[in-house]
Inverse folding.
């Protein structure tokens, strides 16, 4: 069902500083910031040859990333995103298998303009999983 790894997301307190670090110290190509109010985050993507790193900064006090950073003041890995061909079929298969889909189970539009869903970390060895339809 899952395809390739799309990205690994890292929560950060200061998106500009993190982007500068990746761009400068690591020599990475980093996208322009993109605000996603529906998700409560501002993101940049660090382009890799075979995948991406998504740096997430809270967009407002109610952001799930703000809550994550309260528990993890230094930031850290937030989620892993896998690609799927059919997000609704993947959702239904996962729900039948007992996985919990967050946010009511309906896809939202993600940072790449494609449908995404999140799966409860307790169902996946403590890792928040994002599925993105490609």
């Amino acid at each position: 069902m899952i395809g390739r790894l799309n990205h690994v997301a890292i929560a950060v307190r200061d998106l500009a500083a993190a982007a500068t670090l990746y761009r400068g110290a690591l020599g990475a190509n980093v996208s322009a910031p993109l605000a996603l109010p529906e998700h409560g985050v501002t993101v940049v993507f660090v382009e890799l040859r075979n995948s991406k790193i998504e740096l997430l900064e809270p967009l407002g006090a109610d952001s799930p990333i703000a809550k994550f950073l309260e528990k993890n003041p230094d930031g850290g890995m937030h989620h892993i995103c896998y690609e799927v061909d059919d997000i609704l079929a993947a959702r239904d298969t996962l729900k039948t298998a007992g996985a919990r889909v967050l946010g009511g189970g309906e896809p939202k539009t993600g940072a790449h303009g494609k449908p995404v869903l999140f799966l409860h970390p307790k169902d996946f060895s403590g890792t928040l999983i994002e599925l993105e339809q490609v």
Summary: The chain has one domain: 5-133.
